[in-house]
Amino acid sequence: MTANDEIDISRPHPARVYDYWLNGKSHYEADAAAAERVVRVWPGVVLGARLNREFMHRATRWLANEAGVRQFLDIGSGIPTEPNLHQVAQAVAPETRAVYVDNDPIVLAHAQELLSSTPQGRTAYLQADFTEPESILASPELGETLDLGRPVALSLIALLHFITDERGAYDIVRRYMDALPSGSYLVVSHATADFDPDLLTRVAEAYQSTVAEGQIRSSSEVNRFFEGLELVDPGVVVAHRWRHDGDEAQADITDAEFPVYGGVARKP
């Protein structure tokens, strides 16, 4: 069976909806319809998808350049959109290694784009579910690519708001971080209703009715994912303000326009 045989195009998937907002080409009619329902409620979501991607770029660049991280585990990686995480990191350190994980078969169909490593580095792709950390951490794809005896950056970009408390979101993150050595990092971006509760409630309703269940969290709830870790300055902030490199266009965007928190923390 091919990857395409496994793709259910009648139901929207978060990775493909996100691809639509990023003006990608790897989505279907159901994904576009779901994405447009959210756009009608929150026109700024298209800008938000781009800003979220830029947060990932800055966090990855900082980890590779300032923290010296050479291994990345990107779960919920989504459909490839250049530059991908490994391309950002390998531009700093060509020997960087990365493992991508997603549960959407269409990402597998495009995985070759995630495997375009430098000769010095290496990348791998694994189709798996974030909520099963032990199977991901024990997978041959990960074991042949990353050395879990050395620091790893766990990147969870726009993923955790799809994992409810009932599904054990905090415990799952803890299980990943417990398996990683001292000097590893956690990177998170997460939607919030702190700035406009009515808007995010309507967005959540539009999204969950067609795409996936989820849970919007407050600042204190997002901070809980980093318990026991050392937050990198400036802490958990609206993601476009996390080390935004003096970009004036980003500086002019209000928190309510991009209600997504971002943070990076080190495991002591």
From TrEMBL:
What InterPro entries does the annotation carry? SAM-dependent_MTases_sf, SAM_dep_MeTrfase_SAV2177_type
Keyword Signal listed: no
List UniProt keywords, sorted A-Z: Methyltransferase, Transferase
Domain of life the protein comes from: Bacteria
- GO MF entry, a single one: methyltransferase activity
One GO biological process term is: methylation
Q: What is this protein called?
A: Methyltransferase
Gene source species: Streptomyces abyssalis
